[in-house]
Design goal:
6 copies of one chain form a homohexamer. The first copy, chain A, is α+β, with helices and mostly antiparallel strands and 136 residues long. Helices cover 32% and strands 31% of the residues of chain A. Strand 1 of chain E pairs antiparallel with strand 5 of chain F.
C-alpha cells in the first residue's frame, strides 16, 4: 500500500538557451527569443513527488520537514537568484531547458533519497509550460 | 529516458448536453440544467502532455512553440468563441460532455504529433470538474 | 472602524455581444468573435465586497452565510447555466458585456443589502479580463 | 477506451499529530508544531478521480452530480468544521496525517463506487504539501 | 508619488467562533458549525500592503526582506499551528472571526511600521471568504 | 457611473538590483542575492486597470482587444525575454525594482491611453511580492 507525497518549492533564476556548436542563425532559428545573449529569467515552481509505504508509527510516507530541507539545501539554495548558465556547474555544458533542469534536479535528489522511494520531479517554467521526469 | 512536457491553452465556448433520441423529460432528468435548450458556456482550460526522449542537441522533448501552434491551429481556433453543438462538425452527432471533448481533441492532435510521442489530454470544464484521456 | 468582507461565487453562462441597431459588418468589426450569432460562453467568477463596521457581539461585518444565500438566491440561481441574451430579462435590451453584467448584479444586490454597507462587485469573465463596479 | 474524471471538494478541519505510545519529547521531536495539544487546522482540498469507459448514451464516465453528492454525503459532511481527532471515529486510533486522511477517504468512497471504476484520492493539506492514494 | 507594495504570508490555525455571554442555542444559531466546541481550522493567507514613496537610492518603498521578517516575527510565528482561542492572548476575549483577526494583525504591524506608511491587511480564511482592513 | 476594467499580461525577464554609486559591500548588504552580478529572473504578471464610464453603444469601458494590443505593443514586446538592465533604455539608469518597473510601465501606458481614463498598474514579481501604482 503506497502513497505519494508531494512538496512544492520555488526558485527564481536567469538562463539562456544556446547550442555552442551552432551558428548564431541556427541558435536564433531554434531557440528564438530564449537565445537572448543577455539572458532572461523565470520563477520556477518545483514539485517533488516521493512514493512509498506509510510508516505505521508516524503515519508519514516521508517526513515533509526533511523533504523540505533536502530540497532547500540541495536544490533551491543552489539555483535561486542565480544565472543557471554562468553560476552553476550543472549547466556549464548542458542547455538549461526545463527538461534538462528537471533531469538535473531529479539526479541531485535521487542521491539523497533512499531508493525504496520512487521519485518524480515536475518543474513549471511558466504557468503554461511545464515538464515532468521520473527517471525512466 | 523519457520526459513529459505540458502546454496549457484556453478556449471559451457554448454547449448543451442533449440526447436526441430521448424525451425532454429523460434529457432533463439526466442532464439537468446542462440541458438548457438555449445553451450555457464555459472557459475551457486545456493541458496537452507529450512524452518522449530529450533531443540531445536542443534539450527539448518537443519544441513548445510548435506544440503551441499545433494547439492553436487545430484546436483553439476551431472551438474558441464557438457553439460546440451548432458551429462544429465534431459535435454534430456527439454530445459535448467534457469526456467527449477531451477524446475529440486527443484524436485531432494524435494525427498531428508523431506516434513516437505519447499524448494525454486534460480538460478543465470548471475549476472543480475536469477529465483526462490518453488514448487507452 | 470599517472592515471589508468578500464572498466569491461562480456561474457558467452563454452570451453574445451584439448591438441590434448596427449592421452585421459594424457588429463584427466592434465585437469580433464575441458577436458569434450562436453564442459562446464563460465561467464567470464573482466577488462581492461589503464594507461596514464590525458587530461587537458577533465579530462579523455581515454574516457570510446570509451573503452567500443572497448571492445564490438573487444572482447565481438566475444566471447559472443560462443564455444571458435569451433566458434573462436583464439582458433582453442590454448588451451582456462584463461591464454591464457587473452593473446589473450590483443593482440586484444593492436592493437586498442595507445602505449602511458599501457594495462593490468584481466580475471575472476570464482569468485575464475582469471588471469592478461600486455604484459611483 | 477509458477516461478519467475528477471532482474537487473542500473541507476545513482541526487536527493534531500525536503518537499515544510515545513520550511528549518523542512526539515533539517527530511532529514538531503539528503536535500542539490544542490543535491547529487546515483548509483541505480534495480531488477525487474516477476512471472508466464513456457511457455511449450520456457521454459521461460517471455522473458528476452523483459523484459530487457522494463526496458531500460521505466525506465532507463528515469532516467539515470538525476536529478530526475528537469528532470522528476514523481518527480515534489513527494519526490524522495527510497520508492517513487520504487512505480513509479512499476506503470510504471505494465502498460507494462500483469496482469497475478505478479510484484515486488526492488531498492538499496546504498549497505546498499534498498526497495521493489509489489503493495500490 | 506613492507606490503600494504587498507581501503574502501563510499560517495554519484552529479556532472556534463563540460568544461566552450567549446560550448554546444562540451560539449555534449565529455561528452554526463554526461554533463546534472541539474547534475546526483554516489555512489563512495574509496579504500585507504598505504604501509610501519610492526611496530614490534603493528603488524600494519598503525593503521586502524587512517586511517579510516583521510578518514572520510578530504575526505568523505567533499564530501558526496554534489554537487561536486557547493559545493566544489576543483572542482570549475576542471572537476569532476573520474580521477580528485582520484587525488584530493590523494593530500588531501598525506598531512596527513607521506611520509615514499606510498599512492595509487582507486575510483569506478560505478561497471564497476574505476580509480587508486599513485602520479607518 | 464608472467601471474599472482589468487586463492581465505576462513577461519573463532577467534583472539585477544594483546602485552604481555604492560599494559592492553596500550593494550586497542592501540588495542581498538580488545583487547577483550575473542576474537572476522572474515571470512578471502585469495587471492593467482602466477606469471610465461605460460606452452606451458598446457596453464597453475600453475595448479589451485594443488594451491587449497596447500592452503587447508597448510593454510586453519591449520587456519579454529581455535583460532589463542591459537590453532596455528605461532601466539603463533606473534600478529595476518591482516598484520602478511598475512606474515605468505606468508612464508608458499613460501616454497611450486617453486622460479621461484613470490608470493603475499592478505588477507581480513573484506570487508573494507585488506592487501597485496609480500615478499619485
Amino acid at each position: 500500500m503506497k502513497v505519494a507525497v508531494f512538496r512544492k518549492a520555488h526558485f527564481n533564476a536567469a538562463h539562456r538557451l544556446h547550442h555552442p556548436g551552432w551558428s548564431e542563425e541556427k541558435n536564433e532559428e531554434v531557440f528564438g527569443k530564449c537565445n537572448n545573449p543577455n539572458f532572461h529569467g523565470h520563477n520556477y515552481d518545483l514539485e517533488v513527488k516521493v512514493v512509498g509505504p506509510i510508516d505505521p508509527d508516524t503515519g508519514y510516507v516521508f517526513d515533509m520537514k526533511i523533504l523540505k530541507d533536502l530540497i532547500k539545501h540541495y536544490v533551491t539554495d543552489k539555483f535561486d537568484h542565480k544565472n543557471l548558465n554562468l553560476d552553476t556547474d550543472e549547466f556549464k555544458n548542458v542547455n538549461p531547458t526545463a527538461e534538462n533542469i528537471a533531469v538535473v534536479i531529479w539526479n541531485i535528489l535521487r542521491e539523497k533519497i533512499d531508493k525504496k522511494y520512487d521519485l518524480t520531479i515536475r518543474l513549471y517554467e511558466t504557468e503554461r509550460n511545464f515538464v515532468e521526469y521520473n527517471g525512466n
